[in-house]
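Quick one:
INPUT:
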């Protein structure tokens, strides 16, 4: 069974790379609640930025939120997401101040319940990429 799973993960990796090909490299910038996507970003050429550090329990500093608001405006970043395991308040405030909208909820540290959008690792990746690509491209 492990060989079948590895084959499915390899196929998923190829699909993710193809889907991300629709987003130009210069638009692959994403704001999320906290730094949970470092490995994913490094693997797929996406720059993730967050007002919080690695801990989802940490408080975002006002200076960091203000810096990200300026960056969103200056670089026309359209991909702003909350995460499934964190409070949306900071990102909603950041998006409002920057004049953009929160594009959805990514799964980072936890899967969804069995009937949710990300009950398995593979479903989580498909869900996240399905939200990320249109947002990075600035699509409605």
């Amino acid at each position: 069974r492990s060989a079948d799973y590895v084959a499915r993960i390899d196929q998923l990796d190829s699909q993710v790379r193809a889907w991300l090909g629709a987003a130009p490299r210069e638009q692959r910038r994403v704001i999320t609640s906290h730094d949970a996507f470092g490995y994913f970003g490094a693997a797929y050429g996406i720059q993730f930025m967050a007002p919080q550090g690695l801990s989802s329990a940490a408080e975002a500093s006002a200076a960091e939120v203000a810096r990200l608001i300026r960056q969103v405006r200056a670089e026309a970043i359209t991909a702003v997401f909350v995460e499934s395991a964190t409070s949306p308040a900071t990102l909603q405030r950041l998006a409002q101040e920057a004049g953009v909208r929160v594009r959805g909820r990514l799964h980072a540290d936890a899967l969804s319940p069995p009937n949710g959008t990300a009950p398995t690792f593979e479903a989580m990746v498909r869900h996240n990429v399905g939200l990320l690509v249109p947002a990075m491209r600035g699509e409605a």
